[in-house]
Amino acid sequence: xxxxxxxxxxxxxxxxxxxxxxxxxxxxxxxxxxxxxxxxxxxxxxxxxxxxxxxxxxxxxxxxxxxxxxxxxxxxxxxxxxxxxxxxxxxxxxxxxxxxxxxxxxxxxxxxxxxx
Amino acid sequence: xxxxxxxxxxxxxxxxxxxxxxxxxxxxxxxxxxxxxxxxxxxxxxxxxxxxxxxxxxxxxxxxxxxxxxxxxxxxxxxxxxxxxxxxxxxxxxxxxxxxxxxxxxxxxx
Lengths: 116, 110
Fold this sequence. Notes:
Largest sheet of chain A: 7 strands, mixed
Number of strands of chain A: 11
Largest sheet of chain B: 6 strands, mixed
Number of helices of chain B: 0
Strand content of chain B: over 45%
Distance between the termini of chain A: 29 Å
Largest interface: A-B, 26 and 22 residues
Order of helices and strands of chain B: EEEEEEEEEEE
Oligomer: heterodimer
Number of strands of chain B: 11
Helix content of chain A: under 10%
Shape of chain B: globular
Strand content of chain A: over 45%
Radius of gyration of chain B: 13 Å
Structural class of chain B: mainly beta
Number of helices of chain A: 0
Distance between the termini of chain B: 40 Å
Order of helices and strands of chain A: EEEEEEEEEEE
């Protein structure tokens, strides 16, 4: 987890409220990712970024938005949280190198979100 | 669609070998990965294999790749209680993305 932090680490919120999760890296990596982890589903990609202000949707992007105004920060926003968004959220980074491990991603410690 | 499959549970005795299996779908995957997740933690990169290899060994870990059958396996020799964790395989469909399997929970009994 070195070089990647996530905040908050735990959050309880109510249905309908907005929530923003932050991922911060000190590695100067170009690529950043947001995943959610749910039992029986492994990790599913929500959104990712391939540079400042460059983002794209992943597999489960509905109900989520992201922003990346600086290389080091990638924000995930739930505009109006729902109970189905209760999950563990992981941020990951990659330098996108094409040698010795290509899309190798390094993960943060995760944020546990409970939507009541 | 993209669907990486793993069995959900594996239980072994300490000192035995563990074999975790994975089938993937994207034949264009350049690399295939194994990650380990300990309780309450994020994923740690364990090892990876380049698609033009059929085997890679790294200390107690052996990765076997059968491209024809799109089958990947991870063998852990002399399994220890500290190896208890969830193991994820992942394929690389391109664009810097990883597609993960559901994870295999390895339980090591003394």
